[in-house]
Amino acid sequence: MKITKRRLRMLIKESILRLREQARSFVCPAPTQDLELNTRNRNSAIKADYIQYGPLNLSDEAYWDRAADHWRTTPAVAKESNCSNCVAFDVSPRMQDCMPGEIMSQEEIEDALEDNEEVKTLGYCWMHSFKCHSARTCYTWAGGGPIKEDEVSFDWQSRGESK
User: Fold this and answer.
1) N or C: where does the chain have the smaller number of CB atoms within 10 Å of the terminal CB?
2) Where are the domains positioned within the chain?
3) In what order do the strands lie in the sheet with 89-90?
4) Residues 91, 147: Cα–Cα separation, whole Å
C-alpha cells in the first residue's frame, strides 16, 4: 500500500492534534501550580457574600453559626457539609499529584471514604478554582462528593475549559 505525501501530512497533523488534546487533559489546573493565582481565587471566595469560603480557624463557632443560618440548620449539621463531601472537591489520584505536598496518601483517602470517615487533605475546588482543605466549606457546597476518580476529574476540567 502506497501512502501519498498529502495523506501522510494529514495523518501526522491528526496525530499531533490528538496528542495535543491528550496532553491538555493531563495538565494540572493553573491555581495548583501558581500560588499567587490560587491565593487570589481563594481570597475572592472568602470575600464573596455568595460563597463565604471558610472558616480560617475550624474552631470559629461564629462562622459555623452563620453557615447554619444560611442553610437554615444547626451548626453541627453545617459542619458535616464540608469540602470533603462536596461534589466539586477533587481528591483524585491525578489531582493529588498536582498538590504541593501530601497530607493524606491516596490509600488513606480511599480508606477514609470507604469507612465513611473524614478526609483531611487538600483537594481542588472546581467550582471556585483553588486548592482547598477538606474540613472547610462554603455557601455553594453541594453534596455528592468528593471526586475520587481521574476520569471524573478530567470531565470537570473539560467542562471548566469550555466556558
Assistant:
1) N
2) 29-161
3) 89-90, 122-125, 130-133
4) 6
Grid coordinates representing 156 are 470537570
Assign 59 to helix, strand or coil: coil
Comparing 12 with 127, which gets the higher pLDDT? 127
Give the position of cell 467550582.
Answer: 127
pTM for this one? 0.77
Q: Which residue type, as a one-letter code, is found at position 15?
A: S
CA dihedral 80, 45, 121, 161 (to 10 degrees): 110
The answer to whether the beta carbons of residues 92 and 147 sit under 8 Å apart is yes
| Three-state DSSP state, 86 | strand
Structure confidence by residue, pLDDT tens digits, 42-79: 999 999 999 999 998 888 999 999 999 999 999 999 99
